[in-house]
Write a structure and sequence with these properties.
Blueprint (H helix, E strand, L loop, with lengths): L12 E7 L5 H9 L3 E5 L6 E6 L6 E5 L11 H12 L4 E7 L3 H13 L4 E6 L1 H6 L3 E2 L1 H8 L3 E3 L5 H14 L14 H14 L2 H9 L12 H15 L3 H20 E2 L7 H9 L5 H21 L2 H22 L4 H38 L1 H14 L8 H6 L4 H6 L7 H10 L9 H12 L3 H24 L22 H35 L15 H9 L13 H9 L6 H17 L15 H17 L5 H5 L1 H4 L4 H8 L5 H8 L2 H13 L4 H11 L1 H27 L3 H33 L1
Parallel strand pairs: 1-4, 1-5, 5-6, 6-8
Antiparallel strand pairs: 2-3, 3-4, 7-9
Membrane topology: Multi-pass membrane protein
GO molecular function: ferrous iron transmembrane transporter activity; GTP binding; metal ion binding
Subcellular location: Cell inner membrane
Length: 766
């Protein structure tokens, strides 16, 4: 870090961007850095950390701090911003202020100025202010605050270029402002008395206010601070927090009175739109239409590219890589490990790229247009019953298409508690990959009632998500939900560059983090599926693989939910379902097909000659799949969730759609009753999500909570399936007690973990 003062030019510096949510901070960050960004997490927390570089130069760093309203350290975002500003790593703090909401935004400005750090004010959204007919005297504002002020619009290239030039000039030439709020005499005298002992005015004020970082604790005895606070509150007849806030707002109002000149305000276009969008009767229908369009873009449009990525990456990294390894004489185990394991993992990650991309694209469009805040407002009352903000409803809707983007969509939630609760709930939404399993069992066991059965599974998933929210609200995430300030930014047309940068950076994070977990996990499962008990390889989806033998061995665990010993292929399917839930269908088809062939003394397809590998043909097939996928894009909700296939319970249609042999239906009926089949579907609904989803969960919450959620889902799946089966069959009362006891035990375990985590967080913030 190189700090230069006194007018010297600076080529090596760090700028920190600070501001309220929706003030245009991220827009300015994207405009300053373009694609030269890196996204990670701040050390020790899950708060997102964004860094970028001006003009691609690694010596000119820009750090985008979390959007906050104050530095009170009441949330992780506020603690992260406060600690970074105190660290001195930034040569200059650029405080972005929404010029059209000057009073509210200047509260953060005031608290940053009090820290004694060099600050430049960037007045954003000046175009909106001009449309309202209002003006701000920039020179007077600079004089009143004692800091340089740069005015502009973050969405305007020329304005940003001028701002960058001005801010770059100011690096090293800005001194901390000495213009600060004046507090009541009792507080000012106390701060002056403590200033030397605390190590500065801000330290003394923070200790009095109760917002000081942990390293300052002990400089003034806690008992002494509490006594002085109580004494002053008693004298001034008001709580200390209110006294300090009133003093700051008094300072701000004095500044605004001198610099801000407003004309009589007309109702804005945004307010006129909100009269319809936020209408108590029209708000929810409009929200559902918008959610459907987002769902359609992410799932229907995104899914049309999946086969292209699947075939292309399978051709290159699995088949092609396997042929290459074979041509140089690599042993079977090397081919299986590298092509069948690592290659298959890369192929699996690639298939999620289009869905994740289109989901982030849809979310970026909604956020940039200003509608996302309205969606949160519309659904807030409903979601508050679960202790969540209205915005949490969006990932739940997304989950009906794919769990991976649903989990990643929780990034739109500012509060960590809200994000984590939503991540725990999202897997209960039946994703599109589960539908082939539902449809297969529905057609095989329920005939004409298949549609109703599948619909009931979807509804049960929603109910279980709600119950999970209530469960977590009183256990793992017990306590009051984080405060939720409803910010309604003005509407505007989404900006292409901003939307694409935001979408691309999110996609890169998914590939870099979740992708690693997926590749490793798919590699391990792929090896177990290929490795035979005799040490040979190439035993995929056969009863000789280690995975199949393991499945047979643990089948008795599932007997309380009606899984018979001869239904061991269904148990193996649960393992392969970890790749992706639709893999359950492929496993059942392969294993039941082998059983049918053995019973009929048919050799199957083994006599067929294996088609020679052709890279060109594989790439050609991928583009054929792309064309078919694009032509197959449909706008109907029925086609998205598969209602058009399952509505009539047509076995041939379901078998064709799921790409299975219709002959396996009779074997499934032999191994399952309708009750045990439904219990199996309940297990598939609830248990461990696919590896891609698990990778996303770990990325968002960390490995500890990720494993905890995986255990919770799988244990709950067994308990719910067993409880249902025993009730429906009038079975063993003991199993009912065991399954109920498991859920109760989970509650107390989660409650204990929650208490421990809260104590740990309290110590960190103390």
């Amino acid at each position: 870090m190189k700090r230069v003062e006194g007018g010297a030019s600076v080529s090596n510096f760090t700028i920190a961007l600070a501001g309220n949510p929706n003030c245009g901070k991220t827009t300015l960050f994207n405009a300053l850095t373009g694609g030269n960004q890196r996204i990670g997490n701040w050390p020790g927390v899950t708060v997102e950390k964004k860094e970028g570089w001006l003009s691609g130069s690694k010596q000119r760093k820009v750090v985008d701090l979390p959007g906050i309203y104050s530095l009170n350290a009441g949330s992780e975002d506020e603690r992260v911003a406060r600690d970074y500003l105190l660290s001195g790593e930034a040569d200059l703090v650029v405080n972005i202020v929404d010029a059209s909401h000057l009073e509210r935004n200047l509260y953060l400005t005031t608290t940053i100025m009090e820290m004694g750090v060099p600050v430049v004010l960037f007045l954003n959204m000046m175009d909106l202010l001009e449309k309202e007919g209002s003006t701000i005297n920039i020179k007077e504002l600079e004089s009143a605050l004692g800091v340089p002020v740069v005015a502009g619009t973050a969405t305007d290239k020329k304005s940003v270029a001028e701002a960058v030039a001005r801010i770059t000039e100011l690096v090293g030439n800005v001194r901390p402002s000495d213009h600060k709020p004046v507090y009541p005499n009792e507080i000012e005298e106390l701060i002056s008395k403590w200033e030397k002992q605390a190590g500065g005015r801000w330290n003394a004020l923070a200790l009095y206010e109760g917002t000081a970082p942990s390293e300052l604790h002990g400089r003034i005895p806690t008992e002494k601070i509490a006594a002085e606070r109580e004494k002053i509150s008693s004298l001034l007849k008001e709580e200390s927090e209110v006294i300090l806030a009133d003093s700051r707002y008094g300072f701000i109002r004095g500044v605004i009175h001198d610099v801000f000149h407003a004309q009589e305000r007309r109702r804005s276009v945004s307010e006129q739109i909100d009269k319809v969008v936020l209408n108590r009767f029209l708000g929810i229908p409009i929200f559902l239409v918008v959610m459907y369009l987002m769902f359609w873009l992410a799932i229907s449009v995104g899914s049309s590219f999946i086969d292209f990525f699947d075939v292309l990456f399978g051709t290159i990294f699995v088949d092609g890589f396997g042929v290459l390894l074979g041509s140089i004489g690599s042993p079977d185990w090397v081919v299986s490990f590298l092509a069948g394991g690592v290659g298959a993992g890369i192929q699996t990650v690639a298939t999620f790229v289009p869905v994740v991309f289109f989901m982030f694209l849809a979310l970026s469009l909604l956020e940039d247009s200003g509608y996302m805040a309205r969606a949160a407002f519309v659904m807030d009352r409903l979601m508050r019953a679960l202790g969540l903000p209205g915005k949490a409803f969006v990932p739940m809707i997304v989950g009906f298409g794919c769990t991976v983007p649903a989990i990643l969509a929780t990034r739109t939630l500012e509060n960590k508690r809200d994000r984590f609760m939503t991540i725990f709930m999202a897997p209960f939404m039946s994703c599109g990959a589960r539908l082939p399993v539902y449809a297969l069992f529905g057609a095989a066991l329920f005939g004409a009632h298949a549609g109703a059965i599948v619909f009931s599974i979807y509804i049960i998933g929603v109910l279980l998500a709600v119950l999970t929210g209530l469960f977590l609200k009183h256990s793992l995430f017990r306590g009051e939900p984080g405060y939720f300030i409803m910010e309604l930014p003005p509407y505007h047309a989404p900006r292409f560059k901003h939307v694409m940068i935001h979408t691309w950076t999110r996609l890169k994070v998914f590939l870099a983090r979740a992708g690693k977990v997926i590749v490793i996990a798919v590699f391990l499962l792929g090896v177990l599926n290929s490795l035979g008990t005799d040490g040979s390889f190439g035993n995929e989806d056969t009863e000789n693989s280690v995975l199949a033998v393991t499945g047979k061995a643990i089948t008795p665990i599932f007997s309380p939910m009606g899984i018979k010993e001869e239904s061991w292929p269904a148990t193996v399917g649960l393992f392969t379902g970890l790749f992706a839930k639709e893999a359950v269908v492929g496993t059942l088809n392969g294993l039941y097909g082998q059983i049918a062939a053995a019973e009929n003394n048919v050799a199957g397809d083994e006599g067929g000659e294996e088609e020679a590998f052709s890279l060109g043909a594989g790439i050609k097939d991928s583009f054929v799949a792309l064309k078919d996928g694009v032509l197959g894009i449909s706008g109907g909700i029925g086609s998205i969730v598969g209602a058009d296939v399952i509505s009539g319970g047509d076995e041939e249609a379901v078998a064709e759609a799921a790409e299975v042999d219709i002959s396996i239906f009779s074997l499934m009926r032999r191994g399952f009753t309708p009750v045990s089949g439904y219990a199996y579907l309940l297990f598939v609904l609830i248990y461990f999500p696919c590896l891609a989803a698990f990778g996303a969960i770990v990325k968002e919450m960390g490995i500890g909570l990720g494993i905890l959620e995986a255990i919770y889902l799988t244990v709950s799946a067994w308990a719910v399936a067993v409880f249902y089966y025993q009730i429906a069959e009038g079975g063993n009362f003991l199993w009912m007690i065991v399954s109920a006891a498991i859920m109760v035990a989970q509650f107390f375990v989660f409650r204990a973990i929650g208490n421990r985590n809260r104590k740990k967080e309290a110590l960190q913030s103390a």
